[in-house]
Design brief:
The protein folds into two domains: 187 residues, no CATH class; 204 residues, Sandwich (Immunoglobulin-like), CATH 2.60.40. Helices cover 2% and strands 35% of the residues. A five-stranded mixed β-sheet has the order 2-13-9-5-6, with no helix packed on it. Strands 18-17-22-27 form a four-stranded antiparallel β-sheet, with no helix packed on it. It has a three-stranded antiparallel β-sheet with strand order 1-3-8, with no helix packed on it. It has two helices and 27 strands. It has 410 residues and is an all-beta fold.
Length: 410
């Protein structure tokens, strides 16, 4: 592959910022029917030098230039051959002629909290991108390919910040980003193998309630958002039944839709005998969460309840919450084909924090919430040893995946 590298380390000019480019692959296998078919991270990293500077740089792969090249490996030898070169750029001529401006140190966005800013890697720019469609069309199942960074000179740069001076004239000498970074993948026909469904979690039985602790139950309901809708409205009603006549205040984390709710699909144990009694298996959820896990813990005053995380109930009262859910249950396509019967259920949970009294009674109560905002109360630990409040599993709601989700199998 060295013959395709245009710029190497020994071409670097003195008195220029030292930069290297790295390619971080997501998978060594590209499946022809997966969407997106392949993606990876382009990382531009500053080496050693701490002096502030800016540059104009575009991370996009353009098959019409020499910066990134696609190499095909011969199945019979160690030879590689460049393919996929295009005469004309895939980008519209209406796009700006100059690439975007980037700065080193790479400062985090202003909305990051202070702790996250402290942990931010200011020496690296990360960009997630994909293999160009024109290259995808050239790939053959069973063959191996490499995407290679050949190197580039960056003429538009300068010391300092863009606010101080941002010239549109090239600067000499240019910054050199040496070539050599690459990742190799093999093309396979079909979809990525289906991940086996996890064991269906046993629902929490009412007998698991702790004697003397507050008695809560959850009622679940769902309805389509409209005729032939792709979305469902999910609603829960949490009711406090006693046994004490005193009110309780609790953290509502246990009832988050991201936690103790499960989607199941109906399956027949013996596929050759459709009359066999159907069973239900847990579906694999395909949605991903993007949160700032490195945020610091937060102190929350229960009475102030600024984020609506706490609720107070008297015996006989209910707390309600609702959200929308895709009619495919947010499941992987293999689990939720059109016509598939799905069911949804709260499988049960234990309150992470609760206490007797109303929110007004807790004007001086402060608890600690982990920085993600999606985890249970961290302090007081073990809820100050109060009895565990166990909420048993709810009723079950069922529906059929509509035909509009047939597009996933085109």
């Amino acid at each position: 592959m060295d013959t395709y590298i245009r710029w190497k380390e020994d071409h670097r000019q003195p008195d220029t910022p030292p930069l290297v480019l790295e390619l971080v692959e997501s998978s060594p296998t590209l499946w022809t029917e997966d969407e997106p078919t392949q993606s990876f991270t382009i990382a531009l990293r500053r080496v050693l030098n701490n002096q502030c500077f800016w540059l104009r740089w575009s991370p996009f792969i353009d098959p019409s230039n020499e910066e990134f090249v696609l190499l095909s490996h011969s199945p019979d030898s160690s030879k590689v051959e460049r393919i996929g070169f295009e005469k004309y750029s895939r980008y519209s001529p209406s796009l700006p002629s100059l690439p975007s401006v980037h700065q080193f140190p790479n400062e985090p966005s202003s909305f990051y909290v202070e702790e996250a800013k402290k942990n931010w890697d200011r020496s690296t720019l990360n960009v997630r991108t994909g293999v160009p469609d024109t290259w995808i069309k050239l790939l053959e199942p069973g063959r191996t390919y490499t995407i290679l960074w050949t190197g580039k000179e960056i003429p538009y740069w300068d010391w300092g910040t863009p606010q101080q001076k941002m010239e549109t004239e090239p600067k000499w000498p240019p910054i050199l980003i040496p070539g050599g970074a690459h990742f190799t993948f093999t093309v396979q026909e079909g979809r990525r193998p289906h991940i086996p469904s996890p064991p269906t979690p046993p629902p929490i039985d009412p007998s698991e309630r702790v004697p003397g602790a507050p008695d809560l139950s959850l009622q679940l309901s769902c309805s389509p958002t409209g005729p032939h809708s792709e979305r469902l409205n999910m609603s829960i009603k949490v009711t406090y039944h006693g046994p004490s006549s005193d009110p309780i205040t609790f953290h509502t984390w246990a009832f988050s839709p991201l936690g103790s709710f499960s989607v199941y699909r109906r399956v027949c144990p013996d596929q050759s005998s459709p009359e066999s009694e159907p069973k239900w298996k847990t579906c694999i959820i395909h949605q991903s969460l993007h949160v700032f896990w490195d945020n610091p813990d937060r102190q929350l005053n229960v009475e102030e309840n600024e984020e609506g995380r706490f609720a107070t109930l008297f015996p006989g009262e209910s707390w309600s919450h609702s959200w929308s859910l895709d009619a495919d249950g947010d499941c992987e396509p293999e689990d939720a084909r059109p016509g598939q019967q799905l069911r949804y259920r709260f499988t049960g949970e234990t309150l992470d924090w609760w206490d007797w009294g109303t929110m007004e009674d807790h004007a001086q109560t402060v608890v600690t919430l982990p920085g993600s905002g999606l985890e249970p109360i961290k302090h007081p630990k073990n809820n100050d040893n109060r009895p565990k409040v166990v909420i048993p599993a709810s009723n079950i709601v069922e529906w059929i995946v509509p035909q509009c989700f047939d597009r996933q199998f085109d």
